[in-house]
Each structure stands twice: as structure tokens, then as C-alpha cells.
Amino acid sequence: xxxxxxxxxxGCSKNLVDSERLLRQFEANGFIxxxxxxxxxxxxxxxxxxxxxxxxxxxxxxMILDFATAKKKHKLEKLFVMxxxxxxxxxxxxxxxxxxxxxxxxxxYTQLISxxxxxYRDDLLNDRVVTTPNHYAYLxxxxxxxxxxxxxxxxxxxxxxxxxxxxxxxxEVRLLVSRGVKEFQLIAQDLTYYGLDxxxxxxxxxxxxxxxxxxxxxxxxxxxxxxxHFPMDLLDVMASRNNVCKYLDIALQHVSDNMLKxxxxxxxxxxxxxxxxxxxxxxxxIHIRTTLMVGHPxxxxxxxxxxKSFVQDAQFERMGAFAYSEEDxxxxxxxxxDDIPEDVKQSRLDELxxxxxxxSERINAxxxxxxxxxxxxxxxxxxxxxxxxxxxxxxxxxxxIPKENVDLKIGExxxxxxxxxxxxDLIGELA
Length: 431
Known about the structure:
Blueprint: E1 4-9, H1 13-28, E2 32-35, E3 44-49, H2 54-72, E4 78-83, H3 84-88, H4 90-96, E5 102-103, H5 111-115, E6 136-140, E7 142-143, H6 154-158, E8 162-163, H7 166-178, E9 183-187, H8 196-199, H9 204-213, E10 219-225, H10 233-240, E11 244-250, H11 257-262, H12 269-282, E12 287-294, H13 301-314, E13 318-323, H14 331-335, H15 342-365, E14 371-379, E15 383-387, E16 398-402, E17 413-421, E18 425-430
Helix pairs in contact: 9-10, 13-15
């Protein structure tokens, strides 16, 4: 019987890339590997954890405890934990959950292969098994973060910003293209800082331009920008290259000067409005995705009213929001009192998302009658399900194409006319 392992990934797409690299190492050592199986049944289980905010930490801990219980009942032989949660709370987890054979952090998980008596393959360092649909992949261009936002634990977990060399990234893109990947989601905690640490200047525009040159790269999508010191040459590349999606994910968090200062965001309200205006001017038709936060310590009713007005003014094509969660070791946890009641946080969150729902409904309605290039991700009983260049997998709108009289291929592009819209989805037919 072949050796087998189940790898379970929690948290963000940056974690997913780490799991995919580990998957490749296991496969190279003769293992059968299952990623996020519906019913885990391998004798070895690896859990890749998230430690970003309270809900994510709770999900990770519950997952570990579930498998620790299974191990007690002799339903598995080995249990390993890696990722952000164990990077941050290593000693506490070792004491509290002794059933885990070993905890690894965010960066030393490669040791797991050797600890199992297998050989870690240095020649496969940047190789991986893509667990997303074969036509798209996440491309992690950096680790860490040099920003000092009051609420964020990411720099505590991952350390200083570490850009990957341009040629290394381009080699990975070429490898993935050779395996059928057409669409690349560029990811980092802060894309816009890319290159400053190793090249001493911002290099994200140059990197995107070089990726766009590679034959077979159909779409490049950018996650996540930072508003302070935004590299304007990136907008020129986005405007001039047809295979760079007119899409930018840039987390703005808030808009009132009071909150931006408390959050240590290094931008002002006017800076924020100016940046959005410039982005829209330089890249006509761009769809901006942002994330906003409610309930940060010190957020007044007036601050929240400013935020609501901002959502109305900016008309973001895509927007998410979340409530402040106090994180150990952050500037906010050590210097501010978490003074906004949970019910107030939730009501502000609900109110903000209701505003955005109306914005999204209007923007989608404007697409009816227009034709867009759509990539097909999957199908269900009734629809082929795809996305436009303005939509990132799992978080944005989908285009639903009824199956009657059409036979579409997963991973292929089609021109689709939009015939109907809802708040968060589009209904289309082949043009």
C-alpha cells in the first residue's frame, strides 16, 4: 500500500501556496496526497493554520482539536501542524495539545519531510501541485510586511518584507504556463512594496510587465495594494497591457483622518480620494476591490458616518468589510482600549455591507446588454460558472451561463453577453 497524507489548508491564498509546495515534496517522495479531503482518512494529517484574526484562530484550533481527538482514538498515526498560528503560539500549542507530533511555523515547514525520514528536494523548491482549477494559480511574490498598521498581527507572524527575485518568479510562471495555467493571481501582504528590500526601488510595475510578456499568460490580477507611496508606474502597465486585468485589490480600511491616524495608515482622507480618482483616470474601466474596517478603538459615530459617505462616493465595484478584532502584541492592543461594543461593531458592519449591496446591484445592472470575455471555472446541474477579468475566484461575482444548448469547456475563454443581473452575480449567454 502506498503511503498517503491529507493536507488541510486554512486561511488565505498565501497559505495555499505553501501547502501546494509541500504537496509537491510529498509527491516526489512517493506519497499519495489529498488536499482538503471531504473525509480525511490518511494515516498522516498536516494542518496548515491561519492566525490572522480571532475567528480564523478559532477555526484553526478547533480543526487541530478535532484531529487530536481522532489520534487519541487511533484513527490516524501522525498529526502535524504548520502555518501562522503555530508560528505565533508555538510554546502554548505544544503545551495545550500534546497529541500533535510536531508544530512547524510559517517558514520551517519544509523540515517536515526530513522528520518523516524522507528526502527534501531542493531542486523542487519553487515547484508545487496546483490545487485550484488547472487554469488559474496564485503567485506569491513576497513574504512578510514592513507596514506598522495598529491592528495587524501579520508583521509579528511573518517578519519583515522579503521579495522573491524577479527571475525566480518568472521561472515559476513559465513552469505553470507549461502545465496549462492561464490566469495568475499575484499575491503578497503588500504587492506595492515589492522590490524595495532587494532592489532598493519599487519593482512591481516591472515585474507585472515581464510576466505579461510570457506567452500563454492570458490574465494577471493584482492582490493586495497599499495606498501609501503607491507606485504610479503600475497604473501605466495596467493601462497598456491587455493581459493585465483592469482590477486592483487595495485595502483602504477607513477614510476619516481620525481613524487613519489611529490605525497608523500613513495616508489622509484627501490622499485616499485623490488616489482613487487617479487610478480611475489612468486605468479607464478599472474595477477596484477594497476592504474596510469598522469598530477600531476610538471610532466615533462621526467617523463611521464619514466611512458610509466614502462608500457612497467611491462606488467600489467590489468591497468587503470586517469588524476590529484585538490581536496580541499589536500596537492597538498595547495602546488602545477595545472600546466599541461587539453589537455596535456588528451593526456598523451590517449597515456598511447593505450600502455596498446597493452599489453592487447598480454596477451589475449596468453590465446587462454588454459582452465580456469570460473564463469558465466550473459547472453545476444548471449552469456553467465563469468570471470576467473584473472578478477574482471565490470572492467576487460569477457569471452564470444556462446549460441549455451550450457545451462549454472548463478553463476556456468565451465571449458572453450579459442578459440579467443580481446584486452579486450576472446571467449570460454566448455572444
